[in-house]
Specification:
- The protein is α/β, with parallel strands linked by helices and 105 residues long.
- The protein has one domain: 3-Layer(aba) Sandwich (Oxidized Rhodanese, domain 1), CATH 3.40.250.
- It is 44% helix and 16% strand.
- It has a 4-stranded parallel beta sheet with strand order 2-1-3-4.
- Strand 3, helix 5 and strand 4 form a beta-alpha-beta unit.
- The longest helix is centred in the last third of the chain and has 12 residues.
- The chain is globular.
Amino acid sequence: MLSFLKKLFGSEPIPWEELKKQKAIVLDVRTPAEFKAGHVKGAINIPLDKLPQNIKKVQRYGKPIVTCCASGRRSEIAAKYLKQAGVTAWNGGPWTQVRNHLRTS
């Protein structure tokens, strides 16, 4: 039952400290206007609908990817898509949550 819930809600814990050490790439999949209004410092903006034509670019980064958006729904879709393409990816959820977790001291 627990494994079913983890799959359903994606509750696998995100290894934030490890992602910081590996200098994970933050991929913000919101629209350019949303991104311009506020984003994680150093994040790359590729809107979700543009991700398929940019998949090779993302694969070339060679680092883990943390996806983010406004609420976590688009970033969840993006992370699943990236994983299917062989990219190590995590759904970070809302961009503000990612910013708080990856902020350096």
